Amino acid sequence: MVSAPAPPFKDRRKESRSIGVLTLYGPLPDTGYRLKQAIVVQVERDEGGSFVVSEANTGAYHYDPDFSRALSGFIGAFVEEFELLVRRENSLSPAMASDLERFRMLIEPAAG
Fold first, then answer.
1. What does the pLDDT look like over 52-104, one tens digit per residue?
2. Does residue 10 sit within a domain?
3. Which residues pair with residue 3 across a beta bridge?
4. Number of domains making up the chain
5. Which of 21, 35, 92, 108 is the most buried (most CB within 10 A)?
């Protein structure tokens, strides 16, 4: 029996082109949280021209045609994912509990 290879899977990252990276640290504006350590986020443009801001360790991302909104949306998505995991901490799967620990190494409530 002869079989043909499956066509390559195209995902959003392959359709994007890298612009660069940003290092974020300290307080996360308008969230009540701060980063315990710096994180590096990837900035890309997708085929439609939107900016895609993502962080590899947590998988958090956001995209928008406007760079400022893409970055602030990323921060919101990052914090939202952390808060969701915290709220569901008692019922998380082992993989999701690992995700929460990864976030806890990066983010904490801001003092004050």
1. 999 999 999 999 999 999 999 999 999 999 999 999 999 999 999 999 999 99
2. no
3. none
4. 1
5. 35
In a domain, 70, yes or no: yes
User: What is the three-class DSSP state of 49?
Assistant: coil
Helix boundaries (H) for 1-112: 67-87, 94-104
CA 62 to CA 75: how far, in whole Å?
8
Number of H helices, E strands in the chain: 2, 5
| DSSP, res 32 | T
Contact in structure between 23 and 35 (CB atoms under 8 Å)? no
Residue 3 reports pLDDT greater than 60: no
Q: Which two tokens stand for residue 58?
A: 């947590």
User: Is the overall model pTM greater than 0.85, yes or no?
Assistant: no
